[in-house]
Specification:
With 386 residues, the protein is α+β, with helices and mostly antiparallel strands. The protein is 31% helix and 23% strand.
Amino acid sequence: MKKLFTSESVTEGPPDKLCDNISDAIVDEIFKTDKNARCAVECCAAYDRLMIMGEVTTTAKVDYEKIARDTIKRIGYTFGTFSCDKCKVTVAIHTQSPDIAMGVDSSYENKAGGSREDILGAGDQGMMFGYACRETEELMPLPISLAHKLAIRLTEVRKSNLLPHLRPDGKTQVTVEYDGKKPVRIDTVVVSAQHDEKITQEQLKEDIKNQVISVLPKELIDSGTKYFINPTGRFEIGGPEGDSGLTGRKIIVDTYGGRCAHGGGAFSGKDPTKVDRSAAYMARYICKNLVAAGLCDEVQLQVAYAIGVSRPVSVFVDTFGTGKLSDGELADIVTEEFDLRPYSIIEKLELRAPVYLQTAAYGHFGKQGLPWERLDKVIDLKKYLR
């Protein structure tokens, strides 16, 4: 059956993503000197001002304003009301609530005499999802993979001065046509790129098509593929000057482009005791290894936690009919082969390290070099194939 599926991505410059970048830049700076810090940092940006707020407990000396201004400059806002040297920065940071800390510092199981792995309780209740499929080499859905590729290219041509008239704010979107579960063609491409006042719309569209959209796989493009480049017209006012931004408002861009369910929790600005982040990374790691091991061709994993409790309250697997074993059997394999307690997740994925800024744009999944993208459990999982 023919069907269409669409995913979007954004560059570093849209106001929500700018806030994600600042939040994760702060987390990374803290983790350079304090591996046991607790962070829940959010930013709000609008017009000419930035607020940095949240809870941080750390021994690190942090210059929040400098980190923010350096990040704004790196992204490219050196002009306008929100330029790196002109915007107003307010910092409202306090330490983690002791009511939360006591559940994280010593879990429900630890209080009853549990093992070392039980020492940390989940930093909040909630459910987290992971996903993997065979549509791309990185085992990600094709629409989000292509949308990220366009967004990355949009930034590359701007920062390299190949297209010097571009500015930091940009969005991309790709619609893929499927025949059953097989992607067969790209149906629609949307690119909205902030630009200076000198470029004409005709020149902009030609440049975007030749220098950005050209990175898409040619075998998936045909005469029926539709292109919308800055479909509203001119896009000179962007970033916080044009719209407000908030950390954690691009969770579908951050994950699987809408292909997978989402528990609702955002990632950026959080240390790994927050299972919103660490358990979602672990779920991706598990799903990717399940698919790579041949136990299924597509899988979604849900894990759920109670605040202050170490072990998950549920584990649910859905292979959408592609599993070589039943979903129930695969759920049992997951709980047997993977330790889903927060302490063990942090140790396994080496999450007390400054690795987070590289996730703040173009997705948290599908990137080479991140520990949750490793395929080091494939051999262990293949033994379950009958």
